[in-house]
Amino acid sequence: MTFRPGTTIRTLRVAAYRIPTDAPEADGTFQWNATTLVVVQIEAGGETGLGYTYADASLVQLIEGHFRDLLEGADAFSIGQINERLWASVRNLGRSGLAACAISAVDTALWDLKARLLDLPLVQLLGARRERIPVYGSGGFTGYDDTRLQEQLGQWVHEDGCRW
């Protein structure tokens, strides 16, 4: 493996944050009152890439304990090779579900790191397909009463210009 100066991954940091919702939320199948955000930071060459996923805090242990040796010391520009190793490492854990969420957060951090090392916007590194995209709203929870839903969706459409 050929390493470019300054592109060796030096540090992996992972943390989970439980973010309470302002009211119970539901999607018709499940109700919750908090969301857990797992944040991954990968450092190389004086830059830090950031990735995240919404998943259980147990991902911290998976990423730190299972992926650390596959990441630290690797070339930050070799994202394809790193991903192959990550996917192979979860073969006996199951490739979907939590393992996929963990790899997704790491992958996002790696691409963000590469863009920062190259001093490029991530959209330019990945290659934009459009000049602009419409705003998308995520919400409309079934646990909200009709008045709250109407206020939320109405604000998105009328004040924020959200079409979807």
Structure, described:
With 164 residues, this protein is an alpha+beta fold. 38% of the residues lie in helices and 23% in strands. The protein has helices at residues 58-71, 79-89, 98-117, 122-126, 146-158; strands at 11-26, 31-44, 47-54. The protein has a 3-stranded antiparallel sheet with strand order 1-2-3. The chain is globular, with a radius of gyration of 19 Å. The mean pLDDT is 90.
Q: What is the element layout, followed by pairings?
A:
Layout: E1 11-26, E2 31-44, E3 47-54, H1 58-71, H2 79-89, H3 98-117, H4 122-126, H5 146-158
Antiparallel strand pairs: 1-2, 2-3
Helix pairs in contact: 1-2, 1-3, 2-3
Keywords:
about 160 residues; alpha+beta; three-stranded antiparallel sheet; about 25% strand; globular
Quickly describe the structure.
The protein has helices at 58-71, 79-89, 98-117, 122-126, 146-158, and strands at residues 11-26, 31-44, 47-54. It has 164 residues and is of the alpha+beta class.
Gyration radius (Cα, Å) is 19 Å
* Rough outline: globular
The N- and C-terminal alpha carbons lie at a distance of 45 Å
* Share of helix, binned: 25-40%
Helix-strand sequence: EEEHHHHH
Q: Give the strand order, joined by hyphens, for the main sheet.
A: 1-2-3
The count of strands amounts to: 3
Structural class: alpha+beta
Strand fraction equals 15-25%
Query: Which regions have little confidence, pLDDT < 50, spanning 5+ residues?
Result: none
Mean pLDDT, to the nearest integer, reads 90
